[in-house]
Amino acid sequence: MTVEEGTIEGIGERYQAHLRQVEERRNRLNQELKTSLTGISKIVLEIGCGHGHWLTDFAAAHEDRFCMGIDLIGNRIERAKRKVGRAGLKNALFLKAEATELLEQLPRGVGIQSVFVLFPDPWPKKRHWKNRIMNPDFLDRLSDRCVKGAKLHFRTDHTEYFEWASKVAASAEKWKRASDASWPFERETVFQSKADSFQSLILEKQ
Ligand SMILES: C[S@@+](CC[C@H](N)C(=O)[O-])C[C@H]1O[C@@H](n2cnc3c(N)ncnc32)[C@H](O)[C@@H]1O
Predict the structure, then answer these.
(1) Which CATH superfamily hosts domain 39-205?
(2) Whose alpha carbon is nearest atom 27 of ligand 1?
(3) Is the shortest distance between the CB of 118 and ligand 1 below 6 Å?
(4) Is the pLDDT of residue 8 over 80?
(5) 121, 131, 153, 156: residue to mutate for ligand 1 pocket, most atoms within 8 A of CB
(6) Averaged over 147-175, what is the pLDDT?
(7) pTM
(8) Is 71 in the pocket of ligand 1 (CB under 6 A)?
């Protein structure tokens, strides 16, 4: 007997299928990370790397660091991978992954030494604020995977998001604003090149 769409049974089946997909995606990410990070104990992470312009240039300028860029959008990651291939870089890896899932699946022996969140989606409507990446729960989870003294670099052209992120940061127990720190590497991202102005925030893990 087939289960009709819209029945309780149908919803139950679709939900089960969704859970199986999530599980498969997590297992794939876990395997990919284990394989790619063999022998690596520290990484620089860019969350929402888009087409990878910024991180590719960062990796080329810092050959002693292993750099990982993640983004939700597959074709952006494919372009980023081609860029790294053309540059012949061995210290940069791009993965299609969601930030929270990445933190969960990152092998335990790997610590994040530096994080970049550049021009993240600002989610301007109040009902969407819960989607903003700079939220208390995410900062907490991120801190758990960062080495002591790790720095989180956040940059946005959205004034209201900047103020929100500053407030979230001020009440985060595991992060402190690094007011004296300077921005470590300047390269325009795609979104930066379109912005009239922007603000930056640097936090240090306690
Ligand atoms: C506004 S774009 C900025 C891209 C790039 N950083 C730049 O400045 O040009 C934000 C990017 O973050 C990605 N993104 C949003 N939420 C994410 C998440 N939870 N995990 C990973 N990537 C995410 C989006 O797919 C998008 O490519």
Answers:
(1) Vaccinia Virus protein VP39 (3.40.50.150)
(2) 50
(3) yes
(4) no
(5) 121
(6) 97
(7) 0.94
(8) yes
pLDDT in tens, 91-118: 999 999 999 999 999 999 999 999 999 9
DSSP letter, residue 139? H
The two three-digit tokens of residue 126, written as one number: 């109040």
**What's the 12 CA to ligand 1 centre distance in angstroms?**
32
Task: Indicate the average pLDDT of the chain.
Answer: 95
Query: 25-39: string of b/e by CB count within 10 Å (b at 16+)?
Result: eeeebeeebeeebee
Distance (angstroms) between ligand 1 centre and the Cα of 21 equals: 22
End-to-end CA distance of the chain: 58
pLDDT at 62: 98
Longest dimension (CA), the chain: 67
pLDDT digits (tens, 9 = 90+) for 43-80: 999 999 999 999 999 999 999 999 999 999 999 999 99
- The residue to mutate among 47, 76, 138, 157, having the most atoms of ligand 1 within 8 angstroms of its beta carbon, is 47
Active site residue 157: no
The residue nearest atom 12 of ligand 1, judged by CA position, is: 48
Catalytic residue among 57, 64, 71, 121: 121
Give the mean model confidence (pLDDT) for residues 181-201.
97
> What's the 94 CA to ligand 1 centre distance in angstroms?
13
Whether the CB-CB separation of 33 and 108 falls below 8 Å is answered with: no
Distance CA(6)–CA(169), nearest Å, equals 43
